[in-house]
Write a structure and sequence with these properties.
- The complex is a heterodimer.
- Chain A is an alpha+beta fold.
- Chain A has 2 domains: 28 residues; 127 residues, 60s Ribosomal Protein L30, Chain: A, CATH 3.30.1330.60.
- Chain A is built from 4 helices and 8 strands.
- In chain A, the strands form 3 sheets. A 4-stranded mixed beta sheet of chain A has the order 5-8-6-7. A two-stranded antiparallel ribbon of chain A has the order 1-2.
- About 12% of the residues of chain A have low confidence.
- Chain B folds into 2 domains: 163 residues, Rossmann fold, CATH 3.40.50.10070; 268 residues, 6 Propeller (Neuraminidase), CATH 2.120.10.
- Helices cover 12% and strands 42% of the residues of chain B.
- Chain B contains 5 helices and 31 strands.
- In chain B, strands 1, 2, 3, 4, 5, 6 and 7 form a 7-stranded mixed beta sheet that branches. Chain B has a 4-stranded antiparallel beta sheet with strand order 10-9-8-31, with no helix packed on it.
- In chain B, strand 15 and strand 16 form a beta hairpin.
- The chains are: A alpha+beta, B mainly beta.
- The interface between A and B is large, with 31 and 47 residues.
């Protein structure tokens, strides 16, 4: 029993060390991740000046963050001004999920963005959605930062 | 294509029903049965003819190598080195000198003979119990010469069945997605090959993304997801004619298709307005039926072999879990309750188990559970792997595994692997290119 306890303590110490080093590592990418939602601009392209083309999601989530909603409002404003432009919203997932579920998840994310654009006055006729699941990552790395960039919906011009 | 060539089966001698050698396949087999696979004998005239037709020096030897490799990969047999064989193939086939074979510790012996006449290939083989000094089985096949590898697979199936008491899985094919190119711009094609990695054929050109191919029960049709014209829809491909047609032409994405056990329906997911539900389409009259109706994601449906139940993947509890229901969509019941996320449920052809992918603490597992969710067993753990598919006898699973990329995003590869239901005998399956989404056919001949 005693030996067990000693092991347990040693384990705890080792674990704490690990956890600390993990934290230390995270700092280098801080400012790019909030929770596990990407907040950086590495892969972002622009539909027009000041109108980012994409929003990012947390793991397994399709909820729009405050920043995502802000981005989508900018897209809606730009779309209202450019009424002849139609768009495709592409939904994507990271590689950490089963293929078929991720296809469904990508579709759910793309529709979350579409719904939000519609509440800001963009007609459903102008928006089509497509899910690529995890088939089209934008960052090929296998680490939390890469995955956060890949969990996204991207608005692209259809015409 | 190959399916067309009928194999003619002639029983030479009725099977002996003595209790001879037996191989237990229900446990991890730690002492594979020592077996001697003699090269099949080939007379001079047939040798010359075969050289002309197939450009093969010694087909007898090549067929025996097919058998030997199959037996070895099954993990149940230990084929002995041919250099140690004392008896010539033709004499051994007539009457083995059992002392010679016992000397090299063989417990079973396979001998055979290849002849060709009128452009027809005739292959006979015998299975001998060395210790009992008895013949256990003798069969002959006649077919077109180009079918010679299949003959090797069928011989393996017969031997496997005689020694284990269960049907084999060697005269089968795998349909999968062949992959190439960098991860962010991956090119994917449908490919089909023999179970041992030979005779690979590419069925699409790679112009559009294709995913999740699955055979129908007669192995002549394949259903899969194609992004043709950027519209992700379920398609049907006739392997013989190459004709493709869309079957899931709904006003939104259709995906995750599989055939019903009678081959008459395709079951699939249909995603619309952010919600995926499960539907079936009758291939004859094109009648569509909605099976689930829930605001969560319902996908990856797979029928029980009797067609009465469906297992599927849903996140209605908040996270991906495995559920079963009656085939009309009633009596939905969650069966996975372990820690982690569960996906890709596939019902065993024996009916008793469901194979799945599990994601827990950053690791992916391939596992099995009983159809009531009890008795979960994880067979293999890795950084990333998914999509198990059952061998037709329900004893082996094939799946695919991806290696992690490095900091630069390099070093990525995807390969097919197989593992026994026992959790032993994990093996890389040979493919010409990177590969994913494997689906195992049923036995091509019975």
């Amino acid at each position: 029993m005693n030996v067990n306890k000693i092991f347990k303590n040693a384990f705890l110490v080792a674990f704490t060390c690990l956890a600390l080093s993990a934290c230390a590592k995270k700092v280098s990418t801080s400012g790019q991740l909030q929770g596990d939602v990407y907040t950086g601009t590495d892969t972002v392209e622009y539909l027009a000046k000041g109108v980012p083309d994409r929003v990012f999601f947390a793991t397994n989530e399709s909820v729009l963050t405050t920043k995502s909603r802000e981005t989508l409002r900018k897209q809606a404003a730009w779309l209202r001004k450019n009424s002849k432009i139609n768009i495709v919203v592409e939904g994507h997932a990271d590689e950490r999920g089963t293929r078929e579920y991720n296809l469904a998840l990508g579709e759910r994310r793309a529709n979350a963005a579409k719904d939000y654009l519609m509440t800001y006055g963009i007609s459903a006729d102008r928006i089509s959605v497509i899910s690529y699941g995890k088939e089209r990552p934008v960052d090929s790395g296998s680490n939390p930062l890469s995955w956060s960039k890949n969990r996204r919906s991207v608005t692209v011009k259809a015409n | 294509m190959l399916f067309r060539y009928l194999l003619i089966l002639i029983f030479l001698i009725p099977l002996n029903s003595f209790a001879l050698i037996e191989v237990d396949i229900t446990r991890g087999n730690l002492t594979p049965l020592p077996i001697a696979v003699s090269p099949l004998s080939l007379d001079e005239e047939s040798k010359q003819n075969l050289k002309k037709i197939l450009q093969k020096e010694d087909l007898g030897s090549e067929i025996s190598i097919v058998v030997e490799n199959n037996l070895k990969k099954s993990g149940l047999f230990n084929p002995l080195n041919k250099d140690s064989f004392l008896q010539k193939p033709d004499i051994a086939h007539l009457k083995p000198r059992f002392e010679d074979w016992a000397l090299i510790k063989a417990q079973a012996l396979i001998t055979g003979k290849v002849t060709i006449s009128d452009e027809k290939l005739r292959v006979e083989f015998r299975l001998w119990d060395v210790l009992a000094a008895k013949e256990m089985m003798a069969l002959a096949f006649t077919t077109v010469p180009t079918n010679w590898r299949r003959v090797g697979h069928i011989i393996t199936d017969k031997i496997y069945e005689r020694l284990t008491g269960e049907k084999g899985y060697f005269d089968t094919r795998i349909i999968y997605v062949a992959e190439e190119g960098p991860k962010i711009k991956r090119i994917k094609k449908l490919a089909i090959m023999d179970q041992d990695g030979f005779n690979t054929k590419y069925l699409t050109l790679g112009n559009e993304l294709v995913l999740t191919p699955r055979f129908n029960p007669t192995n002549q049709m394949v259903t899969y997801l194609s992004y043709f014209r950027n519209l992700p829809r379920v398609y049907l491909l006739d392997i013989e004619t190459g004709i493709q047609e869309v079957v899931g032409d709904f006003p939104g994405m259709t995906f995750a298709p599989r055939f019903s056990p009678d081959g008459k329906k395709i079951i699939m997911s249909f995603a619309q307005d952010g919600n995926s539900d499960i539907y079936t389409m009758d291939l004859e009259n094109r009648i569509v039926e909605r099976i689930t109706n829930h605001p969560s994601i319902d996908t990856s449906p797979s029928y029980s072999p009797d067609g009465k139940y469906i297992c599927f993947n849903s996140d209605r509890s908040g996270y991906q879990q495995i559920y079963i229901m009656k085939s009309d969509g009633s009596k939905v019941k969650r069966i996975s309750f372990g820690r982690g996320l569960y996906g890709t449920p596939v019902w065993s052809p024996r009916g008793d188990l469901i194979a799945f992918t599990k994601l827990h603490k950053g690791k992916f597992y391939i596992g099995v559970m009983r159809t009531n969710g009890k008795g979960e067993r994880l067979l293999t753990e890795n950084f990333y792997q998914e999509a198990p598919s059952w061998s037709p006898n329900g004893r082996v699973l094939i799946f695919y595994r991806e290696t992690k990329t490095d900091e630069k995003g390099e070093g990525f590869s995807a390969k097919l692997w197989s593992i026994d239901l026992t959790g032993y005998n994990e093996r890389l399956v040979d493919t010409e290119t990177d590969a994913s989404d494997p689906s195992w056919s049923s036995l091509l001949s019975n």
